[in-house]
């Protein structure tokens, strides 16, 4: 048995070795669970190598709350039984490829800066909220998946490849940048999908119909939907559905929902009263659930309406609109134009700010939800790496900007030569050249318009003359015909006179 003095010597040697490599990492073990703290990019390989003797026993590896900006599947290859990997609250950037980790079932990647993620065939639970993920690739596997990708940069369901959209049980895409949804792209999960969360996106269109046999909850609140059409028949069996705070005007009256429906929330929309009347007349059970939902959430029997929406049908606010879609579209376009031009009313500006603030509150709450307690030294290291990465990204943007500037400058100067622009000099900035080119093209446009107008006027004159000539030709043709008839009549009369003359001559002779 090793003496206390010997243990102290070994511990000292370990600390000295770690210090030589630039950091003192700590490893904590609880059965087959291992946590490594205070590890950096430079000491990661050393820290993992220190577990090599027990690599066969490592099923859970926790590297959370460190200043790691990079890690590869090769670093983790010795851990052949690894099932859970926690990389949350690091500063991992760009692409993270863990596809070769064939035994990994659970990955926690919350609170990083990853842009693209690749995972292996055994993945069952993927936590990757609060990143910059725009694409996820999953190797084909047979197990069900739970995927949590809130607050990322997903723009369409296809940003998750086929493997990630197959046999999904829980899919959380809250706070992404999705504007259209094709439910057919989730067809491979039609018999497994139970929960679908896409609130706080920018969805204005839902299309495709798939029967999701096990779907229980559907959250599309805080989007831009204007029509709840037959596509929502895909969620006919849900028990919980919310489309709160959209732009809903109409509902397809043929929609039907399960008798098991318990929650139906459509507050904060802009309904046409007639569409609610038609829908609820065919779905009285849904109307009852809607009333119960509003009562439970607000304590009132009806939602509180905002001006000018003074009417109710069922528990929801509505307006009587003669042309529902056209009226609402015109109003939205007018509001959008007013806000972009800075001419929007105070009410419209405040409404826009409220929407942005609500989204930001959700983002902040999500970050707080997955926040990891990190010591100040690690926080400073993370902040330093984050700033370095931002500097690198900004340097790339500056470099790209300079290249684009040079290309633009060359293009503008080439354009100057092509249009023979006067008063343009080499010393002029691209902006000055662009203004001069735009002015010259405007002048050329005016000249071309003038020439085109003159040509049109000449053509109209020609057409007028041609019409006059055609009319004159028709008149002369008519006169010519009449003259021919007169000549023919005169010839007949002459013939008759000649015959008479011959007869008289015969009689006299």
TrEMBL record:
Residue span(s) of domain LRIM1/APL1C-like dimerization: 323-508
InterPro entries: Leu-rich_rpt, LRIM1_APL1C-like_dimer, LRR_dom_sf
UniProt entry tagged with the keyword Repeat: yes
UniProt cross-references to Gene3D superfamilies, sorted A to Z: 1.20.5.4090, 6.10.280.140, Ribonuclease Inhibitor
Short name of any one Pfam family annotated for the protein: LRIM1_dimer
Keywords: Leucine-rich repeat, Repeat
PROSITE patterns from the UniProt entry: LRR
Presence of keyword Repeat: yes
Name this protein carries in UniProt: LRIM1/APL1C-like dimerization domain-containing protein
Native species: Anopheles arabiensis (Mosquito)
């Amino acid at each position: 048995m090793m003496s206390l003095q010997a243990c102290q010597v070994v511990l000292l040697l370990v600390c000295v070795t770690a210090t030589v490599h630039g950091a003192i990492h700590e490893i904590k073990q609880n059965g087959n669970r291992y946590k490594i703290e205070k590890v950096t990019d430079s000491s990661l390989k050393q820290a993992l190598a220190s577990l090599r003797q027990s690599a066969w026993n490592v099923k859970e590896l926790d590297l959370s709350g460190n200043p790691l900006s990079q890690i590869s599947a090769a670093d983790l290859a010795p851990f052949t039984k690894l099932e859970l990997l926690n990389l949350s609250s690091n500063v991992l950037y760009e692409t993270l490829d863990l596809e070769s980790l064939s035994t990994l079932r659970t990955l926690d990647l919350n609170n990083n800066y990853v842009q693209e993620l690749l995972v292996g065939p055994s993945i069952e639970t993927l936590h990757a909220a609060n990143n910059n993920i725009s694409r996820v690739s999953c190797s084909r596997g047979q197990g069900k998946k739970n995927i949590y990708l809130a607050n990322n940069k997903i723009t369409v369901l296809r940003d998750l490849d086929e493997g990630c959209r197959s046999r999904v049980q829980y899919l959380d895409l809250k706070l992404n940048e999705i504007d259209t949804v094709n439910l057919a792209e989730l067809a491979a999960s039609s018999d497994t999908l139970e929960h679908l969360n896409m609130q706080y996106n920018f969805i204005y269109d839902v299309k495709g119909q798939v029967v999701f046999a096990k779907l229980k909850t559907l959250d599309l609140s805080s989007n831009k939907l204007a029509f709840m059409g037959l596509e929502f028949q895909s969620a006919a069996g849900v028990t919980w559905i919310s489309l709160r705070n959209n732009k809903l005007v109409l509902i397809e009256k043929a929609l039907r929902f399960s008798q098991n429906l318990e929650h139906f929330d459509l507050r904060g929309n802009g309904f046409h009263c007639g569409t609610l009347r038609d829908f609820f007349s065919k779905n009285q059970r849904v109307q009852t659930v809607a009333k119960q939902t509003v009562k439970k959430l607000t304590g009132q029997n009806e939602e509180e309406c905002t001006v000018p929406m003074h009417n109710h049908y069922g528990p929801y606010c509505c307006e009587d609109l003669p042309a529902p879609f056209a009226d609402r579209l015109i109003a939205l376009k007018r509001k959008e134009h007013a806000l972009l031009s800075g001419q929007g009313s105070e009410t419209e500006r405040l409404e826009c700010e409220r929407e942005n603030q609500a989204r930001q509150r959700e983002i902040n709450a999500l970050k707080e939800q997955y926040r990891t307690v990190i010591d100040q030294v690690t926080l400073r290291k993370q902040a330093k790496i984050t700033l370095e990465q931002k500097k690198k990204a900004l340097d790339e943007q500056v470099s790209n900007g300079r290249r684009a500037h040079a290309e633009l400058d060359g293009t503008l100067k080439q354009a100057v030569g092509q249009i023979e622009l006067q008063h343009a000099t080499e010393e002029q900035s691209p902006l000055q050249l662009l203004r001069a080119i735009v002015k010259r093209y405007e002048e050329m446009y005016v000249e071309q318009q003038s020439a085109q107008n003159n040509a049109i006027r000449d053509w109209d004159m020609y057409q007028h003359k041609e019409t006059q000539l055609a009319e004159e030709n028709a008149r002369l043709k008519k006169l010519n015909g009449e003259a021919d008839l007169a000549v023919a009549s005169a010839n007949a009369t002459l013939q008759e006179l000649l015959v008479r003359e011959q007869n008289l001559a015969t009689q006299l002779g």
